[in-house]
Amino acid sequence: MTTPDPNGPVARLLRYANEVHALAGRCGREDLAKVLAACAGRWKDECTDIVVAGAQKRGKSRLLNTLVGHPDLLPVDADVATNCFLSLRRGPALTAVVHRSTDSGPVQTPITVESIPDYASMRGDAGKRRDVVSVDVTLDTPLLDGLRLLDTPGVDSLTVGHRQVTVAMLQRADALLFTLSAQDQPVLRHELEFLAEAAERVQAIVFVLTKVEDSANWQSLQEENKARLRTFVTQAVAENPARAATLCPLLEAPWIPVSSKLAEAAEARRREGRQERADTLRARSGMDVLERHLRGFAEGRDSARGATVVAAALSVLGALTAGAEDDVAAGSDDEGDVTARLAEVEAELTGLAELAGRRRAGAVANTFLGREVAGIVAARVAEIRQPYENAIATLKTQAQLDKYMAELPESVQRSLEAVWSQIVYDVENLAKGTLNAFARDLGLDPVELAADGRAMPSLTQVQVKGDLAADDPGHVDLVRDVLPASSMGLSFGGLAAALLGPVGFILVAPAIGAAIFLGRRSLEKVQRSQAAIRGALRDQFAVVAREMTLDLERMVATWRVGVEQTADESLMRRRKELEGRRAELKTASTRSAADRRKARQSGEDRITAIASLTARGHELRKELAAAVAALGAAPAGTPGS
């Protein structure tokens, strides 16, 4: 990385971050100082991280495939798996490595490129997806020189785990490409809320409107998206003016319409030697404009990265303000100042007590998760049992039943393994939705929950035997088997006698009676075997459901306890801080006049320093915003500028 201009915004930003770091240390807030230290560590990374985010079916995976020139590289029309992201970076060859987080530590496993969907998409193998944190793909393409593209799970509102992973990725992002589709509905509320979160962490944001090739009105849809964004930002800033600094830049972010389909067609024409047609399609695809922005981010990564540091510094300064104001109030000659600050602290403590009450009520509601888990398991198991029962009803002979029985145990085992993955996914999403709502109600950040690669409980395979009594030649029911057959034989024998005479009766009646006897016995044997198999299946699936429910209830209970403990620790930490401030304020009146003046002067000096640093931070943010806006701008006279 080149040495920044000592008078430029990046160099001034680094000096600014050092000053805020030093102030936090002087105030005894090493916890806050560490926040800035972590941000500073990213300056050593020579690779620009660009997160690609958006709701499902917005075209982001196909967009990435087109950018790197491999149409089949990443799974298209299959959402990225929960708790997983895909990394594309430059390397000498096309390779893929799965990164897992296990109890014994991180594990890296090389895989074939063709098997990426098995590990990284929701349509893949659930067993292979377990514990996967990321899939790192390398390929030799110039676009990725100094760039790393990160494909993230969809940010749909119903997919809580997906949204968490994507928001977490923004902590390491230098830029964000947010995808919307010209063939889909306009931007939705949950997407706008995600963008608001993103703007607090990332300053370099580009909107990419995909799939414009088949949309006759993509321009009007783009304008509607802009209008919705403008309304959202206006309302949010009206409710909280402090958000203007982070939200208003969204209104100036560039919009780039692109078509992966046209770009792929351009490459096909180029291979055919139709260069002029290829150039026309490529220009229409918008990919050159998007690539120019990406290269701009790589070349100006310091400016893009600086926004994260400024945001962290401003957050630290805000946290330092309360302590400084307490010292000013404690050193005041007017006892009313101390009283007012005490009242504020007491009000916060009261609010904390109310939160504790909500925590208890929420914990009670969380206990019902177990019942919902049982419902999910029962519904899913019933779904796979019904086709078996339907199939059994179609089997008309004992030979068919015997063949079916030979294949049944393995078939059922495969079905159970498949449905287990879906059940775990359903339960995971249910728990995340419920427990994160609980956390949000207490003012906590979303929590990370993972099914930690749970294997299906050990289950006994289905073992079913037919009606053995039906196979015993000595086991004959006179009333059920013999009399009806004899009666029908005599009836048919009488008909034969009328046609053929007494000889006909003697020959036909016993034969027909025997045939009816054997046919009826065979039919009833099949029916009894069918009933036996159905009964055994129901019993087996009932056992399966109980075992699965018990295992998943334990898993959810562990999550619930973990989230509630986190809530307790957070509430306790906040209470301890407030009680410490209250104690300091209460003892202020016992200090000497000189000590009070000294405390007041110290607080006033810190408030002045904080105000100055805050103003400088906002100015730096504006400068960096201007620098970021220029990163992808085309030079004068460039086509598409």
UniProtKB/TrEMBL annotation:
Pfam (any one): Dynamin_N
Membrane-spanning residues: 492-518
Biased composition range(s): Basic and acidic residues: 593-603
Entries under InterPro entries matching the protein: Dynamin_N, P-loop_NTPase, TRAFAC_Dynamin-like_GTPase
Domain Dynamin N-terminal: 50-211
Keywords assigned by UniProt, alphabetized: Membrane, Transmembrane, Transmembrane helix
Superkingdom assignment: Bacteria
Region (Disordered): 582-603
PANTHER family linked: SARCALUMENIN (PTHR43681:SF1), TRANSMEMBRANE GTPASE FZO (PTHR43681)
Protein name: Dynamin N-terminal domain-containing protein
